[in-house]
Amino acid sequence: ILDVFNAHPREVTHRSGHDPARGAPDYDEMTDEALVLRARNWEALCRYGWHPYMHNPQLKRWLRCIQSPTLVLWGASDRIVTPAYGKAYADLIPGARFVEIAGAGHHPEIEQPAALAEQVIAFMQ
User: Fold this and answer.
1) 81: helix, coil or strand?
2) Quick one: which H or E segment has residue 10?
3) Which residue, 108, 14, 84, 7, is CA-closest to 53?
4) CB-based burial of residue 103 (10 Å sphere; 0-12 exposed, 13-18 middle, 19+ buried)?
5) What does pTM read for this prediction?
6) What is the mean pLDDT of the chain?
7) Distances in Å between the alpha carbon of 70 and those of 30, 60, 78?
8) In angstroms, rounded to a whole number, what is the distance separating the alpha carbons of residues 86 and 98?
């Protein structure tokens, strides 16, 4: 997992998206409300993701207890948390299906919303 607290913001942006140039925020164009929301989201990330860093050390042992059908979706170009990480977790969930979303990085719901929705709909049917 990339240490987003110690990496340069340009590196975080570069690793986040499939097309890093497309996803870079333009702070000069953001409204005051959007800037405040972004700052509050970052504050929440710091509060909940600082220690242990971005994971729950106990999660691996609990994943095997999931009994519901499970779909794990991951951006194929995610360089914040690689698809291999998601695949490893999916492998710990009995019967889980792991799908990479092409053309998406860390936020497939933003970069490829139609492809993500298609996978969810197909899974739910």
Assistant:
1) coil
2) helix 9-16
3) 7
4) middle
5) 0.84
6) 92
7) 37, 15, 20
8) 8
